[in-house]
Write a structure and sequence with these properties.
The structure holds two protein chains of two kinds.
Chain A lengths: L1 H15 L3 H34 L5 H11 L4 H12 L14 H25 L3 H9 L4 H11 L1 H16 L3 H7 L9 H11 L2 H30 L1
Chain B lengths: L2 E10 L2 E11 L4 E5 L6 H8 L7 E6 L2 E2 L4 H8 L2 E4 L10 H11 L4 H14 L15 H14 L4 E5 L7 H18 L2 E6 L2 H7 L2 E6 L2 E3 L6 E9 L2 E6 L3 E4 L7 E6 L5 E2 L9 E14 L2 E7 L3 E7 H7 L6 E7 L3 E6 L5
Parallel strand pairs in B: 3-8, 3-9, 6-7, 7-8
Antiparallel strand pairs in B: 1-2, 1-4, 4-5, 9-10, 11-12, 11-14, 12-13, 14-20, 15-19, 16-17, 16-19, 17-18
The chains are: A mainly alpha, B alpha+beta.
Chain lengths: 231, 341
């Protein structure tokens, strides 16, 4: 018990003193996760919108595939991307392995299905009268699409928040594609895994507290937006 | 001619929901589109508002054939606005809802403000300009939807059952708004309703639809029943309790319409070759342009339509027992039904 309390108190002191090493890890984590979420949003929201509003052969198959991809393990993505970007891979010449870019590529693959499926759900829930109303009031296709997106905004924001929550807490991709290089690709989760291996718990617990705080904020946001969608 | 159409058909999954060989609608008039639920009124309204393409046939708008291509339709939609039966307002303020159509038409901000206020004034909703649209009642929503349509300065407004989901107070207000926008702005109006009284009150012209097809008059007193033979004549047995005389060689289940004007009150019941008498009770009375509509319960609710003078002769009223005469010439067979079970 003393060991736990000591580690916890020391980690609180570490957070309070704003340790530069700790700060750098948090910075890398947030930077990589935010960029991944931004790119996944730019891809997943339009893709989800198109799937939701258009009728095409194989639509159900696409939705089933996306739902399946939601359960894709991070280590599988790590392995898959590694095969492409390692020196022997077809994108080996770009020297991406063990960089933040490699981590972002993997994380984008992880959360595009999250953003897309959540967006499909949010758009599908929108009353069809919105589309008809926008059209009869003179809106063109893009303006009508904007009306639908606007009405589904809370659901869509919730999808982005959920996606961010997924990437900030993942470890497989960051470890396999980032390599946990200090100051460059070391994120909160990979640092925690390393500290655990070393038997050093103070930094790991400090990072755990920060990660849990971020997760709490994300969940509060998610609940808020999901609540707005349900109204 | 505002609209004309030839061989207009709309089918869903092989089922024809609208089949109109010919249609003509003149400019600057109020038309009522009358028909029971499921008669294709809303489908026709969606086609006339260029939201829904017909499966086959040609529509002419202002004597020009309509090309159901997105680009061309967008231009036409700027002249024709549809107000839904249960309109939906965007989840923002009333002001922004009414302003929406003006933004789509690239109207300057200063003018948008003025037109929005004018439109809300016209429907008596100016005080709600900055209210959240989601907090309005059904009647208020309907009025804001009308203001939103009016703000677009359309040449045609199509109303789908505008008073179906509002209280009496809002019903009267909406009817007055429809009449005033037609009178003051010369806007052509098509009101889709199943309410005969409302149609006669509002419209200069009436179109009747039944099961997707135009008819010369609205079918009323529609019942389904089995054809039976009794005493050498045919009857349609409704709910196995009321026998209505019909002229038919058909067997099985049929759908009939009893013309309300063909039903008469009788003082001395005496069955003849073509008529049958029924005892019933008056449950509802209303006046429509010098005619009296009487709802008589003879085991089934029967709508009777007679001149006020004729009705006065009987000196009867709500709750009174009466004898009505129904003749087979007033009964039209409008369809055959599949045998239930």
């Amino acid at each position: 018990m003393d060991f736990f309390v000591d580690s916890f108190l020391s980690s609180l002191i570490l957070i309070r003193t704003v340790d530069p090493a700790l700060l750098n890890i948090v910075y890398v984590s947030l930077k990589v996760s935010l960029l991944s979420t931004l790119i996944a949003g730019a891809v997943g929201i339009p893709f989800g919108f198109v799937v939701a509003v258009t009728e095409f052969a194989g639509k159900r198959a696409v939705i089933t595939l996306l739902n399946t991809l939601l359960a894709l393990p991070t280590v599988v993505i790590g392995l898959f991307v590694y095969m492409f970007i390692s020196r022997r891979g077809i994108f080996g010449v770009f020297d991406l392995l063990y960089t933040q870019k490699a981590m972002i590529i993997g994380q984008v693959i992880l959360i595009v299905p999250v953003v897309t499926t959540f967006t499909i759900t949010a758009i599908s829930r929108i009353d069809t009268r919105y589309r008809r109303t926008a059209m009869t009031l003179g809106a063109d296709r893009i303006q009508t699409a904007m009306v639908i997106l606007r009405e589904a905004r809370f659901g869509i924001v919730a999808s982005v928040v959920a996606a961010f929550g997924r990437v900030i807490s993942e470890v497989g991709i960051s470890m396999m594609l980032g390599g946990n290089a200090k100051g460059f690709t070391r994120t909160m989760t990979t640092a925690m895994a390393l500290e655990y291996d070393k038997g050093e718990f103070v930094l790991a617990v400090a990072l755990g507290i920060i990660l849990m705080s971020i997760s709490l904020v994300m969940n509060i946001l998610l609940n808020y937006f999901q609540g707005r969608t349900a109204v | 001619m505002l609209y004309s159409a030839r061989n207009l058909k709309k089918t869903y999954n092989g089922r024809t929901v609208l089949d109109i060989p010919e249609l003509s609608i003149e400019k600057e008039k109020i038309y009522a589109l009358l028909g029971p639920n499921g008669s294709g009124k809303t489908t026709l309204l969606h086609i006339l508002s260029f939201i829904l393409p017909p499966s086959t046939g040609t529509i002419f708008y202002n004597d020009k054939p309509v090309q159901f291509l997105e680009k061309a339709l967008q231009q036409l939609r700027k002249e024709v606005v549809l107000v839904d039966q249960h309109p939906i307002l965007f989840s923002t303020s009333v002001h922004k809802n009414v302003e929406f159509g003006l933004k789509m038409r690239d109207i300057a901000k200063k003018d948008r403000r003025r037109i929005t206020e004018e439109s809300l004034d016209l429907v008596g909703m100016r005080d709600f300009e900055w209210a959240a649209a989601a907090h309005l009642s059904g009647g208020e929503t309907q009025r804001v939807a009308i203001a939103r349509a009016l703000a677009c300065r359309p040449k045609v407004i199509l109303f789908d059952e505008p008073t179906a989901s509002v209280d009496v107070e809002n019903q009267i207000a909406i009817e007055n708004i429809i009449q005033s926008i037609h009178r003051e702005r010369k806007i052509s109006v098509i009101v889709c309703t199943h309410n005969m009284l409302q149609a006669s009150k509002l419209a200069e012209e009436t179109l009747f639809l039944f099961e997707g097809r135009p008819t010369s008059s609205i079918y009323e007193n529609i019942f389904g029943g089995k054809v039976i033979m009794k005493g050498g004549r045919s009857y349609c047995a409704i709910d196995d309790k009321v026998l209505i005389p019909v002229k038919t060689d058909q067997t099985g289940f049929i759908k009939i319409s009893i013309h309300p004007k063909s039903i008469k009150f009788a003082s001395s019941p005496k069955n003849d070759a073509s008529s049958v008498f029924y005892d019933g009770r008056i449950s509802q009375l209303s006046e429509e342009k010098g005619w009296i509509r009487i709802l008589v319960n003879i085991g089934i609710p029967l709508s009777v339509f007679m001149k006020k003078k004729e009705f006065d002769l009987f000196g009867t009223g709500i709750g009174q027992n009466v004898t009505v005469k129904c003749s087979d010439y007033g009964v039209e067979i409008i369809g055959s039904e599949t045998m239930p079970g």
